[in-house]
Write a structure and sequence with these properties.
By secondary structure, this protein is mainly beta. The protein is built from 2 helices and 9 strands; from the N terminus they run ααβββββββββ. A hairpin with a 7-residue loop joins strand 3 and strand 4. About 20% of the residues are buried. It binds zinc ion (ZN). Zinc ion binds next to loops.
Length: about 180
Amino acid sequence: MKDRTVRKSRPAGAANPATEPGAPGSEAEPGAAGSEAEPGAPGSQAEPGAAGSEAYWSARLPRERYSVLREKVTEPPFTGELLDEHAPGTYSCAGCGSPLFSSTRKFDSGSGWPSFTDPLPEDPISYTTDTSHGMVRTEICCSRCGGHLGHVFDDGPGPSGKRYCVNSLALAFAPENGASVRS
Ligand SMILES: [Zn+2]
């Protein structure tokens, strides 16, 4: 059995010969007026947390959007502003602006949440198995910022058979501004 006594090495005595009081050569320069920090110096502003951190999102997002996107809260059905939006345009992530869905894939599922049969062809969605609330579901998130969007189910009406059920608060809609599509 080894002796595991930890020996504390105390500094012997208080003498510290390295410290010389009143070392010369450290005078303040008399002509250096304006030692205040320059206002507006680039790169010196503290950001409210690094991009993607919860502090960053908390400062950036309205409370209700933060709850959905970062805390995975589901908005009450039939309350979302975009539920009955039928104009042509693009639905983007309300957190980072990444385009997610086209209005051409939106349909009325009757669920009370904006629903789509497919994401944009780039598939800017990440998929995770969600076993919360005693169910096995597939959670969908923005693959760019990780913001929670909703869930995807296998009972959709389109060829994909998918129903992307998305919180309205997780989305930002940009109408096509009447730009006519020419062929
Ligand atoms: Zn995003």
